[in-house]
Structures are given as C-alpha cells and as structure tokens.
Amino acid sequence: MKEDFSMFSSRKDMDEKDYYLSNEGYIVFTEVYHLKRGFCCKSACKHCPYEFKKKEKLRRKG
C-alpha cells in the first residue's frame, strides 16, 4: 500500500512531533502522526495507536 502524505505538501509541513529519524536514517512516524492521518494502514507501524498487530498482518498473508 502506498502511503498517503497528502495532508502535508512537504516534509517541512510536518511537525517535529509527527516523526523522528531512526539510527539507520529511516523516518519513523509517531502516534501523533497516525492520529492526524486518521486510519490504520495495516503495516504494523511501531507507534500504531489503532492496535494493529504484526501477527494479524502475518496471519492474513497465510
């Protein structure tokens, strides 16, 4: 699933509470960002406030 960042015209529009950079340089979205987005993408995100579990994702792949 392609991520929908349409609520932000650029990364500059994102608040410092929306994400942080991991030690490896990846963008990690926070719970605040996920709540702003308003839905679960079912990607088992680290800070998912919608309680989607990685096990559910693996179970669906079968």
Can you describe what's shown?
This protein has 62 residues and is of the alpha+beta class. It has one domain (14-61). It has helices at residues 31-37, 54-61, and strands at 19-21, 27-29. Strands 1-2 form a two-stranded antiparallel sheet. A hairpin with a 5-residue loop joins strand 1 (19-21) and strand 2. The longest helix is centred in the C-terminal third of the chain and has 8 residues, at 54-61. The radius of gyration is 13 Å and the shape is flat.
Layout of strands and helices, then pairs:
Blueprint: E1 19-21, E2 27-29, H1 31-37, H2 54-61
Antiparallel strand pairs: 1-2
Concise summary:
The protein has 62 residues and is an alpha+beta fold. Helix content is 24%, strand content 10%. The protein has one domain (14-61).
Provide the low-confidence segments as ranges: none
What structural class should be given to the helix and strand makeup? alpha+beta
Rg over CA atoms:
13 Å
Quick one: how many beta strands?
2
Number of helices: 2
Largest sheet: 2 strands, antiparallel
What fraction strand?
5-15%
Q: Report strand order across the widest sheet.
A: 1-2
Oligomer: single chain
- Mean residue pLDDT: 77
What sort of overall outline do the alpha carbons produce when their principal axes are compared?
flat
Q: How far is the first residue's CA from the last residue's CA?
A: 18 Å
What share of the residues lie within helices? Answer: 10-25%
Count of domains? 1
